Structure formats: structure tokens, C-alpha cells
Amino acid sequence: MKFGTKAIHAGVHPDPTTGAIMTPIYQTSTYVQRSPGDHKGFEYSRTHNPTRTQLQDALAALDNGKHGLAFASGMAAIDCIVKLLQPGDEVISTNDLYGGSYRLFTKVYATYGIKFHFVPMHDMTAVEAAVTDKTKLIWVETPTNPLLNVIDIAAASAVAKKAGALLVVDNTFSTPYLQTPLELGADMVMYSLTKYMAGHSDTVMGAVVVNDDELHERLSFFQNACGGTPGPQDCFLVLRGLKTLHIRMQRHCENGRKVAEYLKAHPKVEKVFWPGFADHPNHDVAAKQMNDFGGMISFVLQGDRKEDAIAVLEKFQLFSLAESLGGVESLSGHPATMTHASIPAEARKAAGLSDSLIRLSVGIEDAEDLIEDLKQAIG
Ligand code: P1T
């Protein structure tokens, strides 16, 4: 089945009692049993809920994976993955990643005795150098948030396999419309569903997709035992969002290209970060592992001054200044003070994240209007 057909049909089926074509919101915490243990597969909604089951099946199908697991947020999904580790284990993570992931790693799990190495991953040299006999997990985000660095998933998988470590790809920026990491050798794909997957800035959720049965069992145990599960209404909203994922992503990519090209040609813009440019580092890897280049763009103005960036952010009319990304509407952000403020200034600097960086999530409005907004804001 092709992607667009799967986005609409995979994992979901008409309600057996009424024929309702849309997955009902099973707003229930529990399920009646005829006799202890004699039930219809559902005991308690933290463990299983039919709306969530259909979403999990849809997510697995979109990534060409076997098992999907949904969580109350992207962070809850990451939290569940890190729970696979033990004190003394080591993780190698990209040094350019969502600030909340960095915060969870360094402020929570590092205090439990797990060691994190943050390294650049434009090639695998630094990753290979960081491998020890304690390396258990390699954490990749590609393209990265917010610098849009592209990491070679197949190359990372080769390093992980040699090290005997699991490879996770945070696929939030790409979605399975643009890339399917399990097919490139990743063991787990992780999402903030809050973003492109749900697509309408109306819910916070996360997910993990895997192929391996045993890994699925371990993650399901933590999903239930720790309880970071989503409610059925949120699952319904993501199911609805997924039905248009392919159409939205197509337009995000088209608009992303137009905005990136406009910014690149602008005399007041010093640098534009977008993997679709032929001179973007690892553009060839992006062209190989992605179907298109996405709608996330970061840029710095000439002179690289924070106050100039803030002045532009304050002038935007259509690019609303807000955290998050991947919704139908365009958003702008200032990573240094917003989404990445929890990364210490030194670590941000080392990763190349300047205090004047502006991040755009290009929505699916008419591109001409978006460009008009950039024109009036940048001048
Ligand atoms: O916000 P939540 O659904 O918990 O997902 C966390 C998360 C994980 N991974 C990536 C790549 C992300 O971008 C995020 C959340 N990011 C933002 C809120 C943001 O504006 O960048």
C-alpha cells in the first residue's frame, strides 16, 4: 500500500458495533469482565484502550514497523526509551537536539548514573571515538532541532551494531512521509506526535515504533508500569491528523523550499540552515535518506546580533512567535531563549547554536503571504 493510502486506512477499521467509519473515542477508564480474567482484551485504560490501539497500529504501519506505542508527550516517549538502561550504561547523543531531550538526559537520567556523551554526528568519527564497552544507546535526531543538521542513519546503525548498542532516531522533524529509519537500520523511531503527525497544534503526544518483539514487550511494560499514556481524545486527534499527513507534508516541503530560497537571496540574511540546499553539509545524505527536505528552517541575520533577531521576531504577523512546530500554521521561535534555553550557553555555542538564530516552522498557508511577512519583518 502506498503512503497516502496507508495514512488514511492503515491500522483503523470501522467500529464493530455500529459501523462508525471514524475510530470512536473510547472515553472509559475500565472494562467490565464476565468473570475474573474473562474479558474482551481490555482491562484498564492505562494498559489498553481501543482508540489508542488503532492509533498505535496506524503509527506502526506508517513507519513500516511492527509495533507502535503511544505516550502522553514526546518527552514521555523518550523517558520510556531511556528506562531500558541501567546505571553505568552510556549513551551517545547528537550535540544538536531538542532542549527538552538534553534536559531529560542531563538533569534526570545523568543523576541516576547513566552517562551521556554529546557529540557532533555530521560524520561518525566522533561517535566511533565515544564508543566504550558500556555504550548501550545511540541517540540521533535528523534533521536536528534547531540547526537542521543531517545525520546518516545507515552509518549510525553500522556503528551501533558494531558497538552492540541500540539506535534511536527522533523522527519528529521528518515524519515517516520523509524518512523511515527502521528501514535504514534504526531499532526505535521516536516522535513528538504534537508536531507534524498530529499537525494542528491542538494536542501533545508522543510515540515509539519498533520491529523487535522483545523490545516492544520491554517498552510496553514501562508504558503501562510507569503510566505516561495518552487519553483517547488525544489519540483520536492524532488519528485524524494522520489522515492528511502526506498532503500537509507535501505543502510544508513546497513552502519550505520557497521560504528557504527567499531567505538565502536576502541581503540582510547571513546564513540559512535547510537541508535542501546543495551546499548544506550532508545534503547528499539528506537526498539519499529523505524523500524531500521538510518545512523547518533556521537562519541568522547579517551581523549575528541577538537584538536584531528579536526585532524581526516581534514584527512577524503570520509567523506567530511560539514554541512547537509542525502545525498547519507558520510559527517562529528563538531557540536560545525558548526551546533550547535549558541547554547551557556554552554547550549551545559548542554545537553552533547562536543567540541570534531564528527558527521557522513553515506552515501550509499560501507561500506568497509567508514571503510578504518575511519581507515586512526583515525589511
Ligand atoms: O513536546 P513533546 O511532545 O513532549 O516532544 C518533545 C520533543 C522531542 N523531540 C523533538 C525533536 C522535539 O522537537 C520535541 C518538542 N519540541 C518543541 C516543543 C520545539 O518547539 O522544538
From TrEMBL:
Top enzyme class: transferase
CDD domains: CGS_like
Entry-linked InterPro entries: Cys/Met-Metab_PyrdxlP-dep_enz, Cys_met_metab_PP, PyrdxlP-dep_Trfase, PyrdxlP-dep_Trfase_major, PyrdxlP-dep_Trfase_small
Modified residues annotated as N6-(pyridoxal phosphate)lysine in this record: K195
Required co-factors: pyridoxal 5'-phosphate
Position of the signal peptide: none
Single GO MF descriptor: cystathionine gamma-lyase activity
One cellular component term from this protein's GO annotations in UniProt: cytoplasm
Official protein name in the record: Cystathionine gamma-synthase
Gene source species: Hymenobacter elongatus
